[in-house]
Every structure is written in C-alpha cells, then in structure tokens.
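User: Last request for today: this protein with tetrahydrodeoxyuridine, please.
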Amino acid sequence: MTEEQIKELIVKALEMRKFSYTPYSHFNVGAALLATNGNIYTGCNIENASFTPTNCAERTAFFKAVSEGVKEFQAIAIVGGPAESDQLEYCSPCGVCRQVMSEFCNDSFVIICAKNINEYRTYSLPEILPDRFGPKDLI
Ligand code: THU
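Assistant: Here's the final one, the structure of the complex with tetrahydrodeoxyuridine:
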C-alpha cells in the first residue's frame, strides 16, 4: 500500500459518514474497501429500530463488493465517531466485521483505522483476529 492509496481510502471513508443512518447511536462510521482489481467499495453504518439488523460500515462495503462478484481485497479504511464531530478518535472494527474480513481476506490484508488523512494506524488481519476460524476449517 502506498501512502497515496491509504489517503485516498481515508478520504472516501470520511465522505461516507454523511450517509450513515444512525438515529439510535448517532455514531457515524464510514469505510472504503480496496479490491485487488483496483475498485473501491464504500460503506456506512445502517441502524434499525429493532437494533440487531444494524449493519456496520465495513460489512456494508464488503457486501456491496461481494454482491457484485468481487471477492479479493487488499485493504480497508475505517473512520468513525459521533455524528456531529469532525475531530475523530480511532474506530476499531467490531468482532463481527473482523469475522467477515476473515472470510474473504488473507493474512496480508491491511486494516487502516484513521482519525484523519494524516493520523492513521495500520493492522494486519492476524493481528486483529488471531487464530481465526475460517473457510479453511470447513474443508
Ligand atoms: N459500527 C460500525 O459501523 N463499525 C464499527 O467498526 C464499529 C461500530 C457502528 C454500528 C452502530 O451503528 C454504531 O457504530 C454504534 O455501535
């Protein structure tokens, strides 16, 4: 991943926060997922009055890609914080989203958690989901 690619993903993730549907938590998350083919799939979180159907930004991005036949990925940028705030803290992907990443991504997949385009941290999948249960366990 180049610095330029990382910044592009963060900018796209930040833009997605304006589409978050968060009448309950008022916590807006945006994600931008870079596929191996170079396409970028974006996502926001979408909440529900029944709570459990809520979909995180990361999963929205993955499901948009997979539903279009794209299943190989290089990296994802994640930004999140209170809806009205522009000064974000780091937002770490939830356990369910980590498991979804695990389904489609290999050990070199990069997770970028950003406050803004200049402040970000990167992680590998094994770092954030060690000893993962995945497709290999069912073959
Ligand atoms: N959320 C995400 O979209 N991604 C994360 O990584 C953490 C949590 C959403 C779910 C819910 O809409 C809100 O943030 C508060 O949990």
